[in-house]
Amino acid sequence: MASSGGSSGLAVRLSEPRQQRRIMLVIVCVALLLDNMLYMVIVPIIPDYLADLERSAHQPSVLRPNGTSDGTGDNLDVQIGVLFASKAIVQLLVNPLSGTFIDRVGYDLPLLIGLTVMFVSTCIFAFADNYATLFTARSLQGLGSAFADTSGIAMIADKYTEEGERSRALGIALAFISFGSLVAPPFGGILYEFAGKRVPFVVLAVVCLADGVLLLTVIKPFSSRTRDNMPAGTPIYRLMADPYIAVVAGALAVCNIPLAFLEPTIAHWMESTMHSSKWQVGLTWLPAFFPHVLGVYITVKLAAKHPHLQWFFGAVGMVIIGASSCVIPACKTFGQLVAPLCGICFGIALVDTALLPTLAFLVDVRYVSVYGSIYAIADISYSVAYALGPILAGQIVHHLGFAQLNLCMGLVNVLYAPALLLLCNVCQMKPSDSERDNLLEEAPQGLYDAIRMEERREKQEERRETKKGSRPSGERLEVDQNGLNTFKPQSSEST
């Protein structure tokens, strides 16, 4: 009897909106962690594994009689580059469709679809024994990421509507992304060395399965009907044409270019210039996790005090990224290299933490507060950088040199930073009424809308009673087509 009472009490607690919001954040953060761990865990595994497959396929003679290579090394580099880029390429192609799908069906079901596809791709990775199967698994991961990443970030933006809470929640999600990206290479390398290729992927598959079960148990995506009465989202092509959103999307792509282009090239440069050992190459990015988390923390705190300066925090981050990229070629030891890499990750934390909430803010004040398509655009920005990096970085280093690559990346970031000035007026807007709330001024379409409209009427009456004379009751905060605040007297009965 006591056990049944305890279980019912737990069910009641889990059904509370605040608890559900926290559990939702945990589910999304674990999904983002898994996606980024799966993205980076193959870095120390696949090159060595493919080299073994290549050697077994060309066992009779790897070298020609004159001692030159038979070209399999170059072919292997191309295979590795295409394999690494295939995830981002598929993600780039699917995101416009997944964003529209999320806007129409809500956030829960696409997250479950993404976790399911990621689970399948991880299992295929574990048991793949040829290049074609590995390529299929990597491409499937891109499909799963297009649903899981976009719907997860959009769900956070939807559940955390207050600016400070939203920045804090997205900052936590970014910390999990960073942890997954930077911890995965040593995690995969150690398990691959001592337990074999399958073990790292089996561990990730088990965690993915557990996260999916938690989503089904707590969030219950198939039983949710609140989305039925929510407004339709803005088409993704309209959002892409918005100049403010385009500037933010460009900044997200540009700031991630150094990371995307250095990951496939820095290991060879370290081995050839500073004769780094294998453990140093494996731990190259691990120290950068701590400044990344520090950057997230600092930006969240500053954004809470100065929300109108989000654009400035992003611009400062891009300048830090540019300066750090230019310093890398001058490093002569592993210890010297750690500092600029930490600077890059610190700058990326500033940009991401400042601009991801800004995308939701722009949608709130200029469009409908539905976030699938807007965060699909953000995911497209990341995918552009990580699709080009593995394919182009090696060619640029081969033809121009490693130093020139870093100088170009640094210069692009510094030159792009002033473009964020375009957001300074937008970030000063105070969206007291989002588009979603304005739509509720129309006749209610169902129980959900009726409840929301009644709550809003009560709040408006309370404001009028407590703030009489501060502003005529018929006035409402409006945003013009340029994104600037204007106070227009408008009758409360007008639509």
Describe this structure as you would to a colleague.
It is a single chain. The protein has 495 residues and is an all-alpha fold. The chain has two domains: 14-53 and 77-228 and 235-428, Up-down Bundle (Growth Hormone, Chain: A), CATH 1.20.1250.20; 440-489, no CATH class. The protein contains 19 helices and two strands. The chain has a two-stranded antiparallel ribbon. Helix 2 packs antiparallel against helix 6, helix 5 runs antiparallel to helix 6 (131-159) and helix 7 (163-195) packs antiparallel against helix 13.
> How many helices does DSSP assign?
19
- Helix share, percent: over 70%
How far apart lie the N and C ends?
Answer: 55 Å
By CATH, the superfamily of the largest domain comes out as MFS general substrate transporter like domains
Number of domains: 2
CATH class of the largest domain: Mainly Alpha
Radius of gyration: 25 Å
CATH fold-level name of the largest domain: Growth Hormone, Chain: A
Looking at the structure, what is the overall shape?
globular
Arrangement of strands in the largest sheet: 1-2
What is the H/E string?
HHHHHHHHHHHHHHHHHHHEE
Give the strand content.
under 5%
Estimated structural class: mainly alpha
